[in-house]
Amino acid sequence: MADEVVLLDFWPSPFGMRLRIALAEKGVKYEYKDEDLRNKSPLLLQSNPIHKKIPVLIHNGKAVCESVIALQYIDEVWTNKPLLPSDPYLRSQAKFWADFVDKKIYDLGRKTWTTKGDDQEAAKKEFIDCVKLLEVELGDKPFFGGETLGFVDVTLVPFYSWFSVYEKFGNFSIEPECPKFIAWVKRCLEKESVSKSLPEQDKVCGFVVEMRKKLGIE
Fold first, then answer.
1. Fewer Cβ in 10 A, N or C end of the chain?
2. Residue 182 and residue 174: Cα distance in Å, rounded?
3. d(Cα 15, Cα 74) in Å, to the nearest integer?
4. Cα–Cα distance for residue pair 132/129, rounded to 1 Å
């Protein structure tokens, strides 16, 4: 029986982009359903009754929630082009840095466009500091996964589609501070699985302009 794979997602979500990249990288065909998060579908509410959030991967009728968990699931079910290394220690390190991305990059990036004054300045400084830490971890490798796209790469690169948002509203520039990081992004974008899974930065920026108006930040 052929696999039935459905992805419940929302196009600007960096968390959903992770799964789009992984599925594309492994050549998995799937049905994409873009959710209206103000009017969530019965399928989403049924598939993720605890958090009621996207992304949700549905594989042969079984729902897998939370993007890092779903990413690991994809890697275990479709074993071609592995994202996680086979060595237990290296796997633990990849999971550590994926967790770091979730705990730091998302929250700090969000603060660059949702806060002002001292809070925003502190978020910008810590964001750059975190990216510099990631540059150190990358070292001289082409990818965090070594010679090939890996778990940390797929976890992290979707946030690049939000960089113009952070820079525009935070009034700072990332590339002069972190050129090695941007060079890594460009290597990732050479892969079709990445470039076709990330929306244009201008489109994300337009979405955030509207969201800021709704949040009363303007």
1. N
2. 8
3. 14
4. 5
Helix (H, G, I), strand (E, B) or coil at 54: coil
Percent of the chain scoring above 70 in pLDDT? 99
Tell me if 23 sits within 8 A of 50, measured CB to CB: no
Taking all residues of the chain, what is their mean pLDDT, rounded to a whole number?
Answer: 96
Question: pLDDT of the chain along its 218 residues, tens only?
Answer: 578 999 999 999 999 999 999 999 999 999 999 999 999 999 999 999 999 999 999 999 999 999 999 999 999 999 999 999 999 999 999 999 999 999 999 999 999 999 999 999 999 999 999 999 999 999 999 999 999 999 999 999 999 999 999 999 999 999 999 999 999 999 999 999 999 999 999 999 999 999 888 888 76
Give the DSSP per-residue string, 71-100.
Answer: HHHHHHHS-SS-SS-SSHHHHHHHHHHHHH
Contact 154, 95 (CB under 8 A): no
Give CA–CA dist 82/115, Å, rounded. Answer: 39
Give the number of C-alpha atoms closer than 13 A to the C-alpha of residue 176, restricted to the C-beta side. Answer: 3
Rounded Cα–Cα distance for residues 81 and 103 (Å): 27
Rounded CA gap, 206 and 210, in Å? 7
Largest CA distance in the chain: 57
